[in-house]
Amino acid sequence: MTAKEAYSRAEKLRQQLQQLSYEYYVLDQPSVDDAIYDGLMTELKRLEHDFPEIITPDSPTQRVGGVALSKFEKIEHQSRMLSLDDVFSKEEVEAWVQRIRKMNAAISEHPELFVDIKMDGLACSLVYEDGKLARAVTRGDGFVGEDVTTNVRTIASVPLKLRLHEDTTSFMQGRTEIRGEIVMHKEDFAALNKQLEDTGKKTYANPRNLAAGTIRQLDPRIVAERKLYFRAYDILRASSEELPTNESAYKTMRSLGFLVNSEATVLHSLKEVHAHIDQWQDKRHELPFNTDGLVIKINDRAVFRALGVVGKNPRGAIAFKYPAEQTTTRVRDIFVNIGRTGAATPVAILEPVVVAGSTVQMATLHNEDEVRRKDIRVGDTVIVRKAGDIIPEVVEALTDLRDGKEEPFVMPTHCPVCETALVRVEGEAAWRCPNEQCPTRVARRLEHFASRAAMNIEGLGERNVEVLLNCGLVQDIADVFALKKEDVLKLDRFAETSANKLIEAIRAKETPTLARFVYALGIRHVGTQTAIDLANQFRNLDSLKNATIEELNAVEGIGRVVAESVAAWFAEPTNQQLLDKFEAYGVKPQPVEQVGGPLSGINVVVTGSLGSMSREQAAEKIRSLGGTFQSSVGKDTTYLVAGGKVGASKLAKAEKYGTKIIDEQELLKLLEG
Hints:
The chain is α+β, with helices and mostly antiparallel strands. It folds into 6 domains: about 5-60, Helix hairpin bin (Helix Hairpins), CATH 1.10.287; about 85-320, D-amino Acid Aminotransferase, Chain A, domain 1 (2-Layer Sandwich); about 325-410, CATH 2.40.50.140; about 440-505, Orthogonal Bundle (DNA polymerase, domain 1); about 515-585, DNA polymerase, domain 1 (Orthogonal Bundle); about 605-670, BRCT domain (Rossmann fold, 3-Layer(aba) Sandwich).
C-alpha cells in the first residue's frame, strides 16, 4: 500500500468512525456492535503506525496525548460565560415573565419558552476553527478560564472535527463556539468511587466534584480512563442570523455531532411550564446525570440578546430550582466542635447518605437548645436535607421508629479539647470554651487569619496550619511572620518550591490594609463590613486600639455589643502582647488616607455577586478612588450595582429613592475613571 492509498483509506475510516460515534453518543442508536467499531479503530491505528505522515490532529486515534502538563494556562473568554439567576417557585417564574414583558414589547402574554434540564456539571467552552477543535476552556470566573484542551480531547462525546451535514456546511468555516457541561453519569461515578475506595484512595462526594477533579488532572491519560460526557447547551457564531431560536441552536448542535439533552422542549404558556415543572419533580431522578432543576429561557435569540445582562445573569433566562432534597439516615454519634471564638457546636455523625447528589456524613445541630427542641438522640432515624441544596442539616427525628436504645445528647461541661469548663453568657444560645490557648481555637484563628477575606495568605490552609502548630513553629497568629524558609523545609509537606511560595506569600502581606488586619484579628462580632467601618472611622491602628466604648458605639452601624467586644479585645493584656509581636515582626497595617479622588462624594452599594472581583475587592477599589462603599441603599446612595442573585429588597429601595442601577460592566468603567 502506498502512502496515498493509506491516506485515502484512513480518511474513509475516520469518517466512518465519526459517524459511528455520532450514532452511539448523540442518537443513542448504535448501528453496529462495539467489536465492529474496535476493529475499524484498530485498522486506523495500524495505518497511522505504518504511515505516520498521514496522522491528523482530528483523528480519533489522537484523543489521548502522552505528555502530562505542568499547569493549566489562563485563557480569556471572547464572550463572557454567564450564569443564571435562581428561582424556587412557580410564582417567581411568573414574576420573571411579567418583568421581561415590561422590558421588551416583542414578548407576548404567552411567550415561547425553551426549557431544558439543568445539569450539575462543569461548564466548559469548546472553540472550533474551520470545523476543527482548537481550544477547550473552563468557565472560571466567567471572564477567564483554564485551558483544558488536552484533557477535553479525551472525552469521546466531544467531536474533534465538526460533523459535516447538509445543514451544517457554513459551520465548517470560521469560528464556532460550543458551550456545555462536562458531566459524569451516576452509574460511572459509583463504579469509580468504589474502585478508589477498594485501593485505599480518597473518594469523591458527588459526580460533579469528580468530573471537575478529573478535568483538572495534569495527566490526560487519567482523564481518558474515566467516563466523562460533554452535553452542549449553547452555540455562538459571528452571524447570529444562522440560529434564530434556541430550538434551532439545539438541532444544529446535534447535527454538528454534539450530545444535547433530548428532554429539551419548547413550551407556549406558563400553564405548560408549570406542568413541566411538576412532571420533572420526580422524573429528574431517572436521568443518568445529576440535576437539581430546569433552565427556562426565551426561545427567540434576538429577543434574548436584546434583554441584556444584569451582573452576571442574562435577563432572558432563569434556573428553576426544586426544593431541597430530603432523605433519612441514622445518627451514629454526636460530638462537640470548638470554633474560633470558642463556640461549642454539637455535630451529628451520620450513616453516610446521598442528599442532592452529595454524600453527607455530618450535619450541624447548631446548639444545645436546638438539640433539645428537636430531641435528637444518638441512634435516631432522622430526616436530613441540604439547606439551599448546600448545607446539610437535621430537620427532625422520626420518634415513632425508636426502639428504646437511643441515647439522649448530654452537653459536656468541659471543652473536649483542652478540658476547660465551658461557659454560657446569659441571653446567648452557645456554650463557649473561654481558653484562648485551646489548641483547636488557636488552629481556627490561624485559618481565619490566613483566609481569603482576611490576610489572604495563599498556602496557609487547614492542613499546613495543623503541621505548623504540631511542630511548634507557630503558637499564635503573629508567629506566621516569624517563619523562615529553613524552618519550613524541615516539615514533611514542604519542598523547595512550596516553601518559597509560602514565605513569599507571607512577606507580601506585611503591609495589609487596616480593615483586613482588623478583620483578621478574629475579634468576636467583627465581620468584614464592621472592620471596614472601624478602619474608616479611626484611620489607624493606634487610634482604634485606644478608642473607648462610647467612641466605638458612635460609629454608624456599630452597636453596643460590638463596641464592648472590640474594646474588651484591645484591653486584654495577651492581645496587647500579640500586637507588639506583629510590630516586632515588621507587620504595619496601612493607615486609611483621607484624600479626594475621582469617586469623591459617590456612594455605592453592591447587591449580589460580581464575576470579575469579590465584593471586598470592589469595596477596596471604590474607597481607593475616594468613594464610599455602603452596605445598604439609602437616600444618599448614588449607584446600586446589580450583580448576580440580585437582592429584591435593595432593588425596591433603589427605585424608591431614585438611585441609579448599574451593572458590573458599568461599575468597571466607573473604576477605570
